[in-house]
Write a structure and sequence with these properties.
Blueprint (H helix, E strand, L loop, with lengths): L53 H6 L2 E2 L15 E3 L10 E7 L2 E6 H7 L1 E6 L2 E8 L4 E6 L5 E8 L2 E6 L5 E3 L17 E2 L1 E5 H7 L4 E3 L15 E3 L2 E3 L22 E6 L4 E5 H7 L1 E3 L3 E6 L4 E6 L6 E4 L2 E4 L5 E2 L8 E2 L2 E4 H7 L4 E3 L1
Parallel strand pairs: 4-13, 17-26
Antiparallel strand pairs: 1-8, 2-13, 3-4, 3-12, 5-6, 6-7, 7-11, 8-9, 9-10, 14-15, 16-17, 16-25, 18-19, 19-20, 20-24, 21-22, 22-23
Protein name: DUF3179 domain-containing protein
Keywords: Signal
InterPro entries: DUF3179
């Protein structure tokens, strides 16, 4: 591991002269001076499963360098028609299809802002991305918004809501400090893919514009590159301490995980691409060849599926289904670096 945290503020790559000690929590609110007192942040009736206690998460929270909003969210995003793009097909994007709206968010922009707050089909949604853990996740925000707290747990982005200042680690989506402590955000599905794959499936997509209102060089990634992959994104080094570690996979190997209120699961994306379909005790993972990612479902003991010549077949009837259309209950799938998922959910069912 590196000897100290890296300044994640996008205009400098200098190392901060600061300790790795955890940050003391303020109560309440967890982030002071930023409270609006308004909002109805949507949360689950029953919180998502955790493999560490809330106290353990809080104890392992530390500064990532910038202060709250030092990495500024985009709160007034602009979008371009796909025809106006100048992207390479292999450039990475975060894809969203929700409430009849189809959009793509370039990695080159998200790496410098991490959160986009906006309305989609009548709902307020935050599209979030953590470059250190390669996690893209979408959250419903009601009448409030999310911001970058400047804190990290297991290298993962810790968000705060601008209603109460509560702190929300992105991967677990469950508040560890503030008035909403112990509650889990409602999520929407996002897709981590390439521009070429996304555009082929969604030629009517809109694209997040680099006219963000901030002076940023969106041609420069402070961590490395994805086209081709290099720098931090391919190194086995991790910048910040982890709560749990497992070297059975390369630290930056891409996996896809999911969790419910009771269980969590993780699938090796390379294995899933090779075999097409993998079952665990409570989940089914299916390879989506069109977007190069995973679709994850809750397993139903009365139904069985197999993979044959690129198709998902129901064993009883022989009926074929697309990867994104199995007659099972879908769950939010989150792509992540192996080290990051394992640090948060070390007891996950393993789909390999």
């Amino acid at each position: 591991m590196l000897p100290g945290p890296v300044n994640r503020y996008p205009n400098t790559a200098a190392l901060l002269a600061m300790s790795m000690s955890t940050v003391a929590l303020a109560d309440p609110p967890a982030i002071s001076g930023l409270r609006t007192g308004e909002g109805n942040l949507p949360v689950h009736d029953q919180s998502l499963v955790l493999h560490h206690s809330l106290e353990a998460f809080a104890d392992n929270m530390m500064s990532g360098g910038p202060p709250p909003d030092g990495i500024p969210s985009i709160d007034e995003p602009q979008f371009l028609a796909a025809a106006e793009h100048s992207m390479d097909p292999n450039d990475r994007v975060i894809g969203l299809e929700y409430n009849g709206v189809v959009r793509a968010y370039p990695h080159s922009i998200m790496v410098l802002h991490e959160i986009v707050n906006h309305e989609i089909g009548g709902e307020n949604i935050a599209v979030t991305y953590c470059p250190l853990t390669a996690t893209a996740q979408g959250f419903k925000t009601g009448s409030t918004t999310l911001g970058v707290s400047g804190r990290l747990i297991n290298s993962n982005l810790v968000m705060y809501d601008r209603d109460t200042g509560s702190l929300w680690p992105q991967i677990s989506a469950t508040a560890i400090a503030g008035e909403r402590r112990g509650e889990s955000l409602e999520e929407i599905n996002l897709t981590w893919t390439t521009w070429g794959e996304w555009y082929a499936q969604h030629p009517d997509t809109e694209l997040l514009s680099d006219r963000t209102g901030f002076a940023r060089d969106y041609r420069r990634d402070p961590y490395g590159r994805y086209n081709p992959t290099g720098g931090y994104y391919s190194s086995d080094r991790v910048m910040f301490p982890l709560m749990t570690e497992d070297d059975s996979l390369h630290s930056k190997h891409m996996v896809s995980g999911a969790r419910t209120r009771d269980q969590a699961v993780v699938f090796d994306l390379e294995v899933l691409a090779e075999v097409g379909l993998v079952k665990t005790e409570h989940f089914v993972g299916v390879h989506d060849a069109d977007l190069g990612n995973a679709r994850i479902y809750l397993r139903d003991g009365d139904q069985s599926f197999t993979w044959q010549e690129g198709q998902v077949l129901e064993s009883a009837s022989g009926k074929a289904f697309a990867a994104d259309a199995l007659p099972l209950e879908p769950v939010i799938a989150i792509e992540a670096f192996w080290f990051a998922w394992n640090a948060v959910y070390p007891d996950s069912e393993r789909g390999w």
